[in-house]
Amino acid sequence: MRLKAVELHNFRGYREFKLKFAPLTSLLGEGEVGKKTILRALDIFFNGSLAKRPLKLQDLNEKALKAGDWEIAITCYFEDFAVKKSFDLRQYLEETDSFAENGGDFQLVDDQNRGYYRSLLARMPMYVFFDEESSASSPLNFVVRSAIRDKQAEIKEIQDYLDDRLGRNLSQLLANYRDLGAPAPQFVFQNPDLAEMIKQQEKVSVTSRGKAGSVILAFLLAQSENASIDNVVYAFEASSLSAEEEALLAQAVLKLVAKNKQVILIPRTPHLMGLLPLEGTKIIKKVAGKQQLLSDNQVLAEASSNLGLAPSQQAGRSRCVLLVEGQEDVRFVTKINQWMYEAGMVDATFAEKGLFILPVGGCGSLLAWLNFDLFSKLNEPWFILIDSDKGTPEAKQSQRHLHRIRAKYPEMQAHIHATFKREIENYLVFKEGKKKLVFEPYEDVKQHMYDLMQKRHQSWSKDKTASKLMEEMQLPDLQDYYQKDGQTHRELVEYFLQIDHFIDKS
User: Fold this and answer.
1) Which Pfam families does the protein's record reference (predicted)?
2) pLDDT of residue 471
3) Most C-beta atoms within 10 A of its C-beta, which of 134, 173, 225, 260?
4) CA dist., res. 386 & res. 366, Å (int)
5) β-strand 290-293 against 281-287: which pairing, if any?
6) pLDDT(417) > 90
7) How much is the mean pLDDT over the chain?
């Protein structure tokens, strides 16, 4: 049973808000816009007091409080029915449920329709929600809940059998007391719920807390392989994962969706966004203090801004765009180009010729650019200079991402360049007086320099490694030489000359 939509009334930052879900829904938006609030509202709707954060008086929307509207309502729409759960804060969160079928009017649950209402609840999916607070035991406790749900009929049968057997024995016991002429004791029964007893008995605990991101990843990988739990919505916040782990997460999510499972997630990095399909992406934006859901047409424009393509960033007279990873790469390109100008290799700098250098992140971000078709929105010729990450676990993944970009834009093959070495820092040297330290092609230069300075009891910022090293360098120090067909070439110098000649001809 698929969850089609949720509607929130007076819940936290949402006064009135409705969101439709796809089989795979990605929630995007600025940090405090309320993405996780939606996942928490669903947790309360499906799991009630067992939710990670059960409903509290403080969850009432501030504007609703000022207006004297004391009701919080969460409504979920399914394929042929909807369920609304309303909570009256004046009555200490007293819950009132109602339901509607096939788009009809909602009717309150009463004694007459309660049995039918319970049959609708039995058709709803289970909802499992993971975030940074999730412990390693959370997935296993969910498995216990799902097993109890799947065996509900058998559990009820055992419960009825126990009640019947206990009742017959109690009747016989009381009759025996009467026959003996002895006063019968007063028996008080707690009437325990067998399912709840099993749930408590099988509750899983752990002695140490694992990283939440790893907990989520391990669980989803297991679920994607066996997919043994039916009728479930997986909801989670994807954070604190490496690029390689994000790739595994994306694969697991897509496998789950292919097996008719439903997934709602909050991707935290452009890299993960790039690994997921655009369909089902929802962007929430706060306008004048109110959350608004962008239309499908607006999603691309907003994604452009989120991924680094804001109109204000474009140089007014730019004639060409060079996409790089970060600000250090901008400084790296600018410095080498300045050296080339001082050496008379070019007649003007990139800035003077109208090249706009745009930092967009690594290969994962570029893949997001591909999925959102942002290259076509540049309106100018473009080049890409990206770290190859050779010698790292991310290298193969980076190659696959670049292959997809080249396949989509075959005419731009010569414009796309991945470094021959690991990253830009591997082309630099550490000069100290007359000494020069040359780095290996695939070593971690940032870590090398940090460790070296630690031994000397000197500070060193890994993120500023390129800038620091280039302060003492000149163009001949740049380690971009390589041999081809018996001739010496310069990898980066020749690539920048290619860009320079392209601008001159355009």
Assistant:
1) AAA_15 (PF13175), OLD-like_TOPRIM (PF20469)
2) 93
3) 134
4) 10
5) antiparallel
6) yes
7) 84
* pLDDT(221) > 60: yes
Q: What is the CATH code for 1-20+34-124+280-288?
A: 3.40.50.300
Tell me the fold of 126-136+206-275: Barnase; Chain D (3.30.370)
Q: Which of 174-178, 206-210, 257-261, 292-296 has the highest mean pLDDT?
A: 257-261
Please spell the DSSP secondary structure of 67-129, one letter per residue.
HT--EEEEEEE-SSEEEEEEEEGGGTSEEEEEEEETT---EE--TTTHHHHHHHHHHSPEEEE
Does 8 score more than 70 pLDDT?
yes
Angle at 413 between CA 409 and CA 417, to 5 degrees: 120
Cα-based distances in Å from 152 to 162, 187, 194: 15, 28, 10
Question: Per-residue pLDDT averaged across 441-463, rounded?
Answer: 94
Alpha-carbon Rg of the chain, whole angstroms? Answer: 31
Six-digit token string for 445: 């230069």
Model pLDDT, residue 386:
94
Question: Which of the four CATH numbers 3.40.50, 3.20.20, 2.60.40, 3.40.30 does domain 307-424+481-505 have?
Answer: 3.40.50
Reference 265, options 247, 244, 250, 255; nearest CA is 250
Does position 130 have pLDDT exceeding 90, yes or no? no
Q: If you ran DSSP here, which 8-state letter would residue 379 be given? A: -
pTM: 0.61
Instruction: Give residues with Cβ within 8 angstroms of 206, minimum separation 6.
Output: 135, 136, 137
